[in-house]
Specification:
7-stranded antiparallel β-sheet, Alpha-D-Glucose-1,6-Bisphosphate, Chain A, domain 4, single chain, 3 helices, alpha+beta
């Protein structure tokens, strides 16, 4: 199995980043405008809809200010059963995010696309927390016909 890994520093306290990862409003502010469901309790399911499709994420783990973990329960075949995780730590004025989308069966072309899009959306999260304005779908950078 292969994983998508990213590291991003956000000039903020971990609690602000955690809030953007666990509230429908926060998630809609950096990932997908069309976000609904429950993202702030273990067992809840958050639903994200994009022009090209969507994902349903079941919340697996929440440790305030430290960790968020989801399991993909609906979406593209390559995503179902994978896990999306954020580990947060403080380093001086920054919250460091170690991002992991793990459990891909193989590094197919769609995985390459998703790795680039995750990087763009992590920059959107950074912008949302630092400036109050992210670039969620449909306002994100489009990179190909998959969006």
């Amino acid at each position: 199995m292969v994983d998508i890994l990213h590291r991003v520093g956000i000039k903020s306290e971990p609690d602000a980043v955690y809030a953007a990862l666990t509230s429908v409003e926060g998630l809609a502010g950096w990932w997908a405008n069309d976000t609904r469901g429950v993202a702030d309790e273990v067992g809840g399911v958050a639903q994200f809809r994009f022009g090209a499709g969507g994902f349903d994420m079941k919340v697996r783990e929440l440790t305030p200010g430290k960790r968020v973990s989801w399991e993909v329960v609906e979406g593209p075949e390559e995503w179902v059963g994978t896990h999306v995780e954020w580990d947060l730590s403080q380093a001086e004025d920054y919250t460091i995010i170690l991002f992991n989308h793990q459990g891909w069966k193989e590094p197919v072309e769609f995985m390459h696309h998703c790795s680039t899009k995750w990087a763009l959306f992590l920059m959107s999260l950074k912008s949302l927390v630092e400036t109050g304005k992210g670039t969620p779908d449909p306002h994100d950078v489009k990179i190909d016909n998959w969006n």
